[in-house]
Design goal:
56 residues, mainly alpha, 71% helix, transmembrane helix, transmembrane, membrane
Length: 56
Amino acid sequence: MDDRQFAAELERRLVLIEDEGSGEGPLPPLPALDLVFAIVGLVVLTVGLTWWGHFS
């Protein structure tokens, strides 16, 4: 990719990020189920590491 193509793609993505009314974004919204899995995973990891640190 040459510099002109890179600059054009960068400008296109910046416009998408800055334009809230377009209804289009650089990435699709994160599904709610993925967010729930991430939160549950962090809670399980935190509890597990706390338990491991306390009893080791």
